[in-house]
Amino acid sequence: MTISLLGRAAVLVALAACAIGAVAGLYGGAKRSAAAEAWARAMAGLFFAATATAVGLMEFALLTHDFSVGYVAEVGSLKSPTWVTIVSLWSSLEGSILFWAFVLGVYAAGQALLTRKRFPQHSAWALGMTLLVGVFFCYLVAGVANPFTLVDPAPSDGPGPNPLLQNHVLMVIHPPALYLGYVGMTVPFAMGAAALLAGRITPAWSRALRNAMLVPWGFLTVGIILGGWWSYEVLGWGGYWAWDPVENASFLPWLTSTAFLHSAMLMERKDQLKGWTMTLLMSSFLLTILGTFMTRSGVFNSVHSFTQTPIGPVFLVFLTLMLLFSVLLLAARVDKLTPPQEGLSGPTSRDTWVLAQNLAFATFTFTVLLGTVWPLVNEALSNEQISVGEPYFNRWGVPLAGLIVFLMGVGPALPWGRATPGGVLKRLAAPAVALVLTAIGCLAAGLREPWPVLTFSVSAFALVVTLAEMVAPGVARWRARGESLPVAMVQATVRTRRRFGGYIVHLGVIAIAVGVAASSGWRDEHQLTLLEGETAVAGDFALTYLGAETVQESHRLSTLAKFDVKTVAGREVGQLAPRMNVYAKMPMNPLGDPAVHSSLAGDLYLTLVSVEAEAGAVSVEAIIEPLVGWIWIGGGIMALGTIVAGWPSRKRSRSQAAPTAEQAA
Length: 665
Description:
alpha+beta, Four Helix Bundle (Hemerythrin (Met), subunit A), six-stranded antiparallel β-sheet, four-stranded antiparallel β-sheet
């Protein structure tokens, strides 16, 4: 009872802090009131402290198995391992919304701290908008998604969380990464709204806005990759992306925020495309709200989503209000932003190709959005249920993804200004040769699948351009200053860190494209039934069935089938043991837990189908997945590039101590 009361009190304090802070911030922005802005910053700190207290109380209740707390009674269990108990916080609706509010509190406090005494024309507006969004989520936690309801009498035990969330340690980091990406989109949205409300966007605010987007974009990227890895490691189907509605829900804001990061370069560098860039920014936030609605409303049938809840209509109302606010704000204020000083530089300039890539991202976003929501629209209009599956998404998504990778190579190879046709040919000659040679090499090796071969070819094109652009500043410095080449490379990299980090991200995208193309184009499946001691061949692997055993753990009963694995050439690989897990919450629906042998060349993926103990037989599906590990490696490379690009330099930090151009204005 004490935790329920304290937790609810903390949530109400957070709600009050957001409400007061939102009013103070918006008033401070409108009236340029330093006192009101100070109130908003104080309330942002209180918002963080209150939500941190609420989360701490909930974790304490989970760990001490206080089943008088409603959320603990729903997802807690005396049999759950400690790590499962901890991550149960985000395993169901009420806890996930509480965690969302806490993450927003972290972002709001960070925003208040990092903009203190800077950007006086925008910071109060931005903080007010962030806290206004916080009002909605605190209202949810205090109302329809209250995790601190009192259960009386308290049960002696609970059912535990969804078994799918207990099957792999990736659930420790995958959901928080997605939350940090989803929730973090609020800050750049608020900053963009602040620019529109103030009627001005300065170069300093433009840089801050792009840097603010890098943080949630990086987390969202990691969250999507980890989600694919979790699906691959847990669900037993050997895949990592099925165009599931909830998978699409995370992919949609990633597409628009990626387009924003590219468009923001033009806005910052050449004072262009401000209206388009603000539209992408607003769309990214709106798509995170749409994605949250899709995940938590129960209207979509997905392994990733929560069950039917009363939160759906509330989210739909909030989404509608935010959409109306964004459209009206853009319509009323976008013309107040400083008009561009010059147009695009022509078809041979980088800015034109950045815009082309933006349009490709926008087309991809519309394609995925249409395929995701159309079944609901059709059912509402005709009362007929239809499904839009992988064929639709692959038919349109694969060519668009290939086009984006190709444009990722063309744009950086061109200068920001106009270039002569001869200069363009010189810049693109080596990448074009790489594209052609890769295509010829694939065909000579007997690879005939058109889309994988095309993806390999355009990836080679983009790779040559990316590597050339990464070394170009160092080579130029080496030639101009006479430094040793290693010193010149290091110095140039340090001085162009944001640019260099962006190209590291491009390398990660190329690695992912290659991994997806190879694993989907040349996947090899084998259905095997073996007796104990019998050997079967799957691809380049020989599998010998050693027998089965049953393992009882505190939260599940597992049946394992053990295999000794060698290559057909006789090299020892080791033992693999796919399993079936039975959880008390789903005793009639055992969950498979595949065993995977990974290498840079590809994976051997074993899924247990059935075990016949009396006959000493086992049925297993063996899948050969070429180069699939490069998807996870590519995600790590993208995360590294994001850190490099977003890491503040000492020079910039020192310069920020002095008044900025905006502050002097």
